[in-house]
Amino acid sequence: MNTTAVVRCEVDADGIALLTIDYPGKTMNVIDQAFMDSLQQCIDRVRDDAAIRGAIVTSGKDAFVAGADLLAMEQNLDSTADDPLPVLFEKYGSLSRVLRNLETCGKPFVAAINGTAMGGGFELALACHHRVLADSPAAVVGLPEVQLGLLPGAGGTQRLPRLIGIQAAMPFLLEGKHVAPAQALAAGLVHELAPPADVVACAKRWLLGSPRAVQPWDEKGFRIPGGNALDPRVAPAFVVGNTMLQANTQQNLPAPQAIQSCLYEGSLLPIDKALRVETKYLMTLARGAVARGMIRTLFVSKTRAEKGLHRPAGYAPFTCRKLGMIGAGMMGAGIALVAAQRGIEVVLIDRDQAAAERGKTYAEKALGKQVERGRMTAEKRDAILARIVPATDYDLLRGADMVVEAVFEDRAVKAEVTRRLDAVLPDDCVLASNTSALPITLLAQASVRPGRFIGLHFFSPADKMPLVEVIRGKATDDATLARALDFVGQLRKTPIVVNDARGFFTSRFIGAFVDDAIGMVAEGIAPALIENCARQAGMPVGPLAITDELSIDLAVHAGEAQAREFPDSYRPGRSVPVLRKLFELGRLGRKVGKGFYDYEESAKALWPGLAELYPLKPVQPDPRDLKQRILYVQAVEAARAMEQGVLLSPADGDIGSILGVGYPAYTGGPFCFIDGVGVAAFVAEADRLADLFGDQLRPPQLLRDMAAHGETFYGATAVAIRQDARA
User: Fold this and answer.
1) For the purposes of burial, counting CB atoms within 10 Å of the CB of 179, is it exposed (0-12), middle (13-18) or buried (19 or more)?
2) Crossing angle of helices 353-372/378-386, nearest 10°?
3) What is the spatial order of strands in the sheet that 388-391 belongs to?
4) Half-sphere exposure of 257 (CA within 13 A, CB side)
5) Please, what sign has the CA dihedral across residues 554, 501, 645, 148?
6) Within this chain, do residues 524 and 481 fall inside the same structural domain, yes or no?
7) Domain contains 211
């Protein structure tokens, strides 16, 4: 018998077994082998004990079950790679078999869902014969596996359509949609709602009535609501759905397609055969590079970063109570808003009162929309707004324990702000500069306390973007880094930590993409081909459209500033002549209605004049090569950043690339991408692309050495990466 009692079984005087899931030593119930063994033991007891009439499944924690233990799954993805297919099939079908045993054991089971039930947790509930959900905003239910490159593999793709119909199930399965209690009841995902304290009592009332211990899909003559995949009412949904999938995923994400196949094939089969089809597709996805990379980066590495992967030890937890926010533009206003939402008092300072007031207006508008949509009460909005004090007087910052400046990207301007802050801030107050490129070590020279100076690179809009790039200057001390990471955590954002260098990581990473792509225009590659290949590679927006949005004059001025600041090391990119030409023609981007694109009120089109400035090659490159070029030029730049000691770990690069600048999530980030291709194969392909398109694609020595030694960035053969957070 398994010694880990993940599920407790207690039988009352009425013969009702209460199965309480309470995983020892964990804050959340997760599904792993110990969970499955313990649950199966309880199912066996309920089945075999004649005195037991039925069972209630609930949780001893605030949430019901969070789903699979993805930390353990990450290890399994690496350790089971060489297992024979029959062995893998048994492993990936293990939870599905346990849940099938539950629903066919001959006794009625009811799920008393006291809190969040996601993924495998909700699949457990679906296997029960009745579901009672706590009527609480925190009690959301859903099947989010598609967002990690997987599918619900414990019956979710088969029970949900048999419960509510194929078309109604599609958003939950293909989009990972989750819903609150009222929506779950309306959609038919649960049978009834109850106050949180009464879910178990409500479940017991159902069991003491005349419950059936047979699922609808096990009844003779069962028909899927609305029809199966061949029904004329349903079949068009697969045609339209497949077209939409191809348009939205560019065939880069295999999970939605696998889910479609599970729905189609499974609806034509009896439930037991359908569950085996589901396991087959789950196994195929789990063995692929997409799921491995997405799980590793978007769950495992992200979770570790948020729990303090690079936080220096030995420092007491820090809570910011009063924040000084210098600069009330869009960035500063967004940071002020998110800080106020987390209960922090904010002094929002700008050069004049009107500018500071405009920064607060940003928060008023954003919160007002939430009130209009019923997502926030007016009272809560007013409480948040009361925490933001617009001002011009630096003396109001004397009690601040954290200050962030987000003024114009100019060393002289930032230096003046730093000197004014040094005159009023407490000695232990951390001063953070929000900058996307200026080296923190140089900015810190303006401060009398460089050890307390650090970079916090927020992404626009700051109140919505989840990432913060934390940049440690050469003088930044451990206490400051610890405080900065605690502050980012307080804002509920995901930090990555990088060493100081011009462009840090994210700016040089996305810069490699945009610079090379604009360089393609000068090469005579069709702009439409560039934009379309970028989107087909998985980039959210084409590089020319990105440049127009950010504004061409800003890009030109930034390059000029870099040339002035760093005359010895600045090397103009391949995009500079093209940007300069558009700047001279007054084509400054979307804000003036013309840039790479021409803009009208409701439409945009690539400017035909580009072809006159840069005549097209008579033979255009193969689109497959261009898609590779777009992915590889960024991955090569990430490897250079690792080689140069800018990145502390592959995880920082992978998280930052996806959450910060939109590198395709299906890759898992550049380092997961390199591992997925294979380091040696990546080096060979990068060399081929460099021969075709230029040395910006040439892989650095780090990758050549790794290929020679059979090393990877992750797993048992991972290369040793220096973990020191200093340049």
Assistant:
1) middle
2) 160
3) 388-391, 345-349, 322-326, 402-405, 430-433, 453-458, 467-472, 494-499
4) 12
5) negative
6) no
7) yes
Q: Taking a C-beta distance cutoff of 8 angstroms, is the pair 655, 595 a contact?
A: no
CA dist 646 → 439, 504, 724 (Å):
12, 7, 10
Instruction: Enter the tokens of residue 563.
Output: 């040339």
Dump the DSSP string for 296-347: IIIIIIHHHHHTTTTPPTT-------EEEEE--SHHHHHHHHHHHHTT-EEE
The answer to whether residue 84 is domain-embedded is yes
65 φ/ψ angles, rounded to the nearest 5 degrees:
-145, 130
Query: Residue 298 domain-assigned?
Result: no
87, exposed or middle or buried, with CB in 10 Å at 0-12, 13-18, 19+?
A: exposed
* Helices H / strands E in the chain, number of each: 31, 19
Same-domain status, 486 and 550: no
Cβ-based neighbours of 158, under 8 Å, separated by 6 or more: 262, 266, 271, 274, 275, 278
Distance of alpha carbon 357 from alpha carbon 712, whole angstroms: 51
How many domains does the chain divide into?
3
Q: Where are the alpha helices (DSSP H) in 109-224?
A: 120-127, 156-164, 166-174, 181-187, 199-208
Residues 345 and 370 in one domain: yes
Q: Is the pLDDT of residue 315 over 90?
A: yes
* Known catalytic residue at 709: no
The CA distance from 249 to 233, in Å, is 25
State the Cα–Cα distance between residues 598 and 174, nearest whole angstrom: 35
Phi-psi region of 260 (alpha: psi -120 to 50; beta: other; left: phi over 0): alpha
What is the average pLDDT score of the chain?
Answer: 93
Q: 180 lies in which domain range?
A: 7-287
Q: How many CB atoms neighbour CB 694 within 10 A?
A: 15
pLDDT in tens, 9-38: 999 999 999 999 999 989 899 999 999 999
Q: Which of 478, 500, 522 is the last residue of a domain?
A: 500
Contacts of the segment 461-466: beta carbons below 8 A, 24+ positions apart: 461/330, 461/334, 462/331, 462/334, 462/335, 462/337, 462/338, 463/334, 463/335, 463/337, 463/338, 463/341, 463/366, 464/334, 465/659, 465/660, 466/493, 466/494, 466/659
Q: 317 versus 212: which is more confidently predicted?
A: 317
Q: How far apart are CA 354 and CA 368, in angstroms?
A: 20
* CA–CA distances in Å: residue 217 to residues 220, 269, 270, 382, 404: 8, 11, 8, 51, 58
**Residue 663 zone, left/alpha/beta (φ > 0; ψ -120 to 50; rest):** beta
Same domain, 490 and 513: no
CA distance 15 to 211: 14
Q: What is the DSSP string of 33-76?
A: HHHHHHHHHHHHHHHH-TT--EEEEEESSSSSB--B-HHHHHHH
Q: Are 215 and 128 in contact (CB under 8 A)?
A: no
pLDDT in tens, 423-478: 999 989 999 999 988 899 999 999 999 999 999 999 999 999 999 999 999 999 99
Structure tokens at 541: 């927006």
pLDDT in tens, 528-550: 999 999 999 999 999 999 999 98
Give the predicted TM-score (pTM) of the model. Answer: 0.91
Which residue from 545, 529, 648, 633 is spatially nearest to 590, judged by alpha carbons?
A: 545
Catalytic residue among 129, 130, 178, 457: 457
| pLDDT band, very low/low/confident/very high, at 571 (cuts 50, 70, 90) | confident
